[in-house]
Design a protein that fits this description.
380 residues, Immunoglobulin-like, 2 domains, six-stranded mixed beta sheet, six-stranded antiparallel beta sheet, 8 helices
């Protein structure tokens, strides 16, 4: 999918400058901020297309009975942007599930072959098989992309959430089969508590770049995915720890008090409080490093989109740099004028996702803030 400078300009509100606290004067941070905006729109499905050839082992499976013969990790091996190692596949086998039933309506069968989740994040791989004669193919940029008609009421029990859909048609042929991965993130209710969780789709559409919807396949498909999800997470002892956060763009700094931290095989969530005389900028307890026992570091991202999408190209990043530079002075002025004499205490949560699944037994410590606070895990 191509991105234009208008994607970046969506970051700026017409009537209010609301800047997340990040040192985004680099290409990497411009990308992260853009991704955050794209994925943070609550209760709005935003399908995003990336074209890959699905591994034969996934494409060949059409029913729940065969799905149960493989672990969840096998289905995600070629789904993540970085192909998984055998160790990572085993990690996902332990925390995922393949015990879900296929549903057929109007001749179209959708099979949820695998699902992964921690408390606030879930990935589900769907195998879709349309009636004979259906032609799933690689759509052009002008044609748009496929979209599942999400029934939002089916996810209301989760509270606020973001959802993305990633499509994997075969680049080399037209067929009646396609694979999709849906991501559900930012939920206020736990996804992996063992309770029933349902998701429902009404019809499959092709959505044009102009937001026009054309019915592609008719049907209603509802799945239960939560009962068999297991939890692999570690509570990190952080209560009362202080992290320093410096914002060079706005010549400001904060002391953040950590109240809770949890790390899973898929990501990390940090709860904290801070005192400030403006809410325009929300500080986060970064920079963050997750360091393994062998000294290597695990890549993290603020958005699941970069786990499945091609990277931004250099031209887009250069345009993003220029757009931010043009607006920074105005933003600084707005930030200063928003300050008041009275300070208030604010409470926030910060979620990040691992580029690849993590074996928690091999994590040595987590490093936070500009003072490089190192926090060991309970399991070490």
């Amino acid at each position: 999918m191509k991105y234009t400078i208008s994607d970046l300009l969506d970051l700026y509100e017409e009537n209010d400058v609301n800047i997340k606290d990040k040192n985004i004067a680099s290409s990497k941070k411009i990308k992260e901020l853009t991704m955050e905006k794209i994925e943070s729109r609550k209760k709005k499905a935003r399908p995003i297309t990336r074209i890959l050839i699905i591994a034969a082992i996934v494409a060949a499976i059409s029913g729940a009975a065969l799905a149960n013969s493989l672990g969840a990790g096998s289905y995600f091996r070629n789904i993540f942007y970085n192909e998984l190692t055998e160790e990572q596949v085993q990690v996902l086998d332990e925390v995922g599930t393949t015990s879900m039933e296929s549903v057929t309506d109007h001749g179209t069968t959708i099979t949820p072959v695998a699902a992964l989740a921690d408390e606030n994040l879930c990935y589900i791989v769907l195998e879709i098989e349309g009636p004979e004669g259906t032609q799933f193919r690689k759509l052009t940029e002008n044609e748009g992309y496929y979209q599942l008609g999400l029934d939002f009421e089916s996810l209301e029990a989760l509270g606020g959430f973001s959802m993305g859909t990633y499509w994997y048609p075969d680049e080399n042929q037209v067929s009646n089969r396609i694979t999709a991965v849906i991501t559900i993130e930012g939920t206020t209710e736990k996804l992996n508590d063992g309770g029933e969780k349902w998701i429902r789709f009404d019809n499959i559409y092709i959505q044009s770049p102009e937001k026009e919807y054309t019915l592609f396949l008719e049907g209603t498909w509802a799945f239960e995915y939560g009962r068999n999800l297991t939890s692999q997470s570690v509570e990190v002892p952080v209560d009362g720890m202080i992290v320093s956060r410096v914002n060079e763009d706005f010549d400001d700094a904060w002391q953040l008090t950590l109240t809770d931290m949890k790390i899973s095989s898929l990501g990390i969530r940090v709860c904290y409080s801070y005192s400030a005389n403006t809410k325009m900028v929300t500080p986060v307890p970064g920079p963050i490093k997750v360091v393994m026992k062998d000294g290597s570091e695990i890549g993290v991202t603020i958005s699941t989109q970069v786990l499945f999408e091609e990277p931004f190209d250099e031209e887009f990043l250069a345009q993003a740099e220029e757009a931010y530079a043009r607006s920074i002075e105005e933003q600084r002025a707005a930030y200063e004028s928003s300050k008041t004499a009275e300070y208030s205490t604010y409470y926030e949560e910060w979620s990040l996702y691992f580029i690849s699944p993590v074996n928690l037994d091999e994590v040595a410590y987590i490093q936070l803030g500009h003072d490089e606070l190192q926090i060991p895990l309970n399991n070490n």
